[in-house]
Design brief:
Radius of gyration: 20 Å
CATH class: Alpha Beta
Number of strands: 9
Structural class: alpha/beta
Shape: globular
CATH superfamily: Alpha/Beta hydrolase fold, catalytic domain
CATH topology: Rossmann fold
Strand content: 15-25%
Distance between the termini: 34 Å
Number of helices: 11
Strand order of the largest sheet: 1-2-3-5-4-6-7-8-9
Order of helices and strands: HHEHEEEHEHHEHEHHEHEH
Length: about 400
């Protein structure tokens, strides 16, 4: 039996796409001067307009990714996961950043270079595995357990294995590359005195933490181009929640990512802002004033005045494949708004002769839409990234990478 919320979402989306809804969105295929975008060549120009607005008004402008990033392999075990994988710990050294950026990488033990999933974790690499060889981070961590005093503890080892099915990913033939988001920028309002913001502070960049995390993913991508086990032309960038926002912005600003995956990213991620459903600009800027650039705050309670919306962000990935996913009990992330963005981005993909999500109504719970270059699913459950989500991402990557 169809979940009642999905029935409601289908009604909402049906009225929206048929033009009966009063929601007015900034156009994808029209230049700022009002002229029409008619070709791929036109779109490549329009893309620059849209990206510039997102940089100026939402995420902020980040520094150029450093060239020739130094790195060191600090640990390697070719018999990880009972011989299925090689585990590496790789340290990246970014300019004057006081701490190394610690990458945890699992490669399937197979010949040749392999495709990879790249994404941040929330609390540290040691939380996604029970392997004791993976060290605790020495940096500040969120005090989610109300007992950590913002420090990593051995009791937290492996507490996020439910979100990271490492063996499933390796068995499917993919490498997993992950890092702690706090290695790039801590997730609290520190006045931008720590992390990468601190080393660029004198240069007065406008970027918030979402843009900093996105910049960090791009730096890791530069390392992966040198990794002897990874096919750098087949790297999927993935993120959940706030890290899904970062993954989307990384994909929008760096075409080296071959696939972009947003899991429950909500406001400032995949969800349409003008709907004002779930988390709003006022809510997100009040609770997390450091995530976005200062200009973004002037749109509090005025979402309709922002000259871009998130369907345009999704469209910036074209013609590369993109996957947006929601959960039916995650109203704060506005599942229908996430679906609408994915749906509307399809207009740009059609310029390239590619298919979007493939239907104009919300799919039923756990009936994924994966036949186009824009994929979407909504699963049962709460705000989370689950093994079911990962199964869908792997299936889609098998088709598109």
């Amino acid at each position: 039996m169809r979940n009642s919320i999905i029935s409601l979402l289908i009604i909402v989306c049906s009225s929206f796409v048929s033009g009966q809804d009063t929601l007015q969105l900034p156009p994808l295929l029209r230049f700022n001067d009002g002229s029409e975008v008619k070709s791929v060549r036109d779109w490549e120009k329009r893309r620059k307009e849209i990206r510039s607005i997102f940089e100026n008004e939402v995420y902020g402008t980040a520094p150029v990714v450093p060239k020739n990033i130094k790195f060191r392999i600090v640990q390697e075990d070719k018999n990880a996961l009972n011989g299925k994988a090689t585990r590496r710990l790789v340290n990246l050294y970014l300019n004057k950043l006081s701490n190394p950026v610690e990458l945890l990488i699992y490669y399937p033990n197979k010949p040749g270079r392999v495709p990879a999933f790249l994404g941040y974790n929330f609390w540290g690499n040691y939380t996604i595995t029970n392997e004791k060889e993976v060290p605790l981070t020495s940096l500040w961590v969120p005090d989610r357990e109300k007992e950590t005093d913002n420090r990593a503890k051995e009791t937290m080892r492996g507490i996020r294995t439910n979100r990271w099915p490492v063996e499933m990913i390796v068995d499917a033939g993919y490498a997993l590359v992950t890092l702690y988001s706090g290695d790039i920028d801590p997730d609290y309002d520190d006045g931008f005195d720590n992390g990468v913001h601190a080393i660029y502070k004198k240069e007065k960049y406008t970027w918030g933490t979402i843009a900093a995390w996105s910049w960090g993913l791009r730096c890791v991508m530069s390392y992966l181009e040198k990794d002897d086990k990874i096919n750098s032309e087949k790297v999927a960038v993935i993120g959940h929640s706030r890290l899904g926002k970062a993954a989307l912005w990384a994909g929008a600003t760096d075409e080296r990512f071959a696939l972009v995956i947003s899991n429950n990213s909500g406001c400032g991620g995949a969800a349409l802002s003008r709907r004002k459903q779930g988390e709003t600009f006022t809510a997100i800027n009040t609770r997390f004033p450091y995530w976005f650039c200062n200009n973004f705050k002037k749109y509090n309670d005025k979402e309709e005045l922002l000259p871009v919306d998130q369907h345009q962000l999704i469209a910036l990935m074209a013609p590369r494949p993109v996957y947006v996913a929601s959960a039916d009990k995650d109203a704060w992330a506005d599942p229908e708004g996430e679906f609408m963005s994915a749906l509307l981005a399809g207009d740009v993909y059609r310029l390239y002769g590619l298919k979007g999500v493939g239907q104009k109504t919300m799919p039923e719970v756990e009936v994924p839409l994966q036949n186009g270059h824009v994929a979407y699913h909504i699963r049962s459950g709460k705000h989370d990234i689950t093994w079911y989500d990962w199964q869908q991402y792997i299936l889609f990557a098998n088709k598109r990478l």
